[in-house]
Amino acid sequence: MNVIPSPRHLHAVVRNLGHKLVYGRVADLRPMPTQMIGAEPRCPVRRYRPPKDVIPTGPPVLLIPPLASPASCYDLRRGCSLAEHLVGTGRRAYLLDHGVMGCGDRAVGLEEWIGEVMPQAIRAVSEDADGQPVQLVGWCLGGIFALLAAADRPELPISSITSIAAPVGTTATPVTSPLRRLTGGAEASLMDMVFGGLPQPVAKRAYQLAGIDKYLMRPFVILVNLHNTEFLAQIEAVDHFTNTVIAYPGRTFGQLYRHFFRANGLMGEGVELGGRRIALDAVRVPVLVIAGHGDGIAPVRAVHALTRRLAGSPEVRFATAPGGHLGVLTGRRARTTTWAHLDAWLDEGTRRHGLRSPRGVSVATVR
């Protein structure tokens, strides 16, 4: 093996270091432009503006982030942004942006998120798109919120749901096990009492600890990839995302932990919210479930478990793709794997309503 770097390799290293010195980074972190269409409390809905040469058509797509994650999970960086990809392929793309949670949100529970915020957002998007049913796409707990909203309100104008990296079989989710053993199951109450919920530093460390092996090896990996602009840009974008992870409000965090993780309620008869029980077998729309091979927060079997709980859905499809928890959604290989699965699924939904796929997007399934 030749260990002496080539002149081209050295030139790339110098170029990247110079660009980082002058501009502070190599990643293009400009957010995709949006326009506000709904500003209900805790429910700001934004429409992505398409490029000048693209006229968006077809059913709308609503992106739903988890509460503790910034909405930039769908718009990580230019060239590696699901939002950019969707509008670039001619789709009507929207975002439910929860914004930053503060002390005023401490008493807000899942009843509000599932029973009020989600329905408001879905109806706002449908109305803005000439009354068309909405294709929901949710990452992590965003996927679970989409499913619970569909189960709770079957009358909502929902065309389909895509759930990406959403752990439903939580007994197969290792990230909470150490804390659960340490506190005997009282960790949610302890967090709420001391911090008012899951604080931002803890949420941030959870992302890092889920991939601790990569985190520890990171300085060496960066050093040997100084010539690789795309690699460095992705590292910077992920760092920026992780640094902006936000806190979970207290009551919501407690309910999430008790119902989803400790009691594993989504795998049983459902969860009780606001005096009513919501079970996933009440979902009546097609569902695509995607899991990441290297996901330490939502392992494949914890995500695959969802397919066993959707007995009421007319179609359930499962797919896997490379990447960790964030990488499966928006990693460097997502365009040809996860996004290809999603494109095919959304196109099928478009044809299901008797419409043409935007700009002739390919519907070939990735294996």
Notes on the structure:
- This protein has 367 residues and is α/β, with parallel strands linked by helices.
- 40% of the residues lie in helices and 17% in strands.
- It has 13 helices and twelve strands.
- The strands form three sheets. Strands 1-2-4-3-5-6-11-12 form an eight-stranded mixed beta sheet, sandwiched between helices. The chain has a two-stranded antiparallel ribbon with strand order 7-8.
- Helix 2 links the parallel strand 3 and strand 4.
- Helix 3 crosses helix 4 and helix 6 runs antiparallel to helix 10.
- The radius of gyration is 21 Å and the shape is globular.
Layout: helices, strands, pairs:
Blueprint: H1 7-23, E1 34-40, E2 43-48, E3 57-64, H2 82-88, E4 91-96, H3 110-128, E5 134-139, H4 141-152, E6 158-164, H5 177-183, H6 187-195, E7 197-198, H7 200-210, H8 212-224, H9 229-243, E8 248-249, H10 250-262, E9 271-273, E10 276-278, E11 287-292, H11 300-304, E12 316-321, H12 327-330, H13 338-352
Helix pairs in contact: 3-4, 6-10
* Largest sheet report: 8 strands, mixed
Instruction: Decide which structural class fits the backbone.
Output: alpha/beta
- Please count the beta strands (DSSP E, at least 2 residues each): 12
Radius of gyration: 21 Å
Averaged pLDDT, please?
80
- How far the N terminus sits from the C terminus, by CA atoms, comes to 33 Å
Order of strands, main sheet, comes to 1-2-4-3-5-6-11-12
The residue fraction in helices comes out at 40-55%
* Backbone shape: globular
Q: Which strand-content bin applies to the residues? A: 15-25%
| Distinct helical segment count | 13
Low confidence ranges:
177-198, 360-367
Output the helix-strand order: HEEEHEHEHEHHEHHHEHEEEHEHH
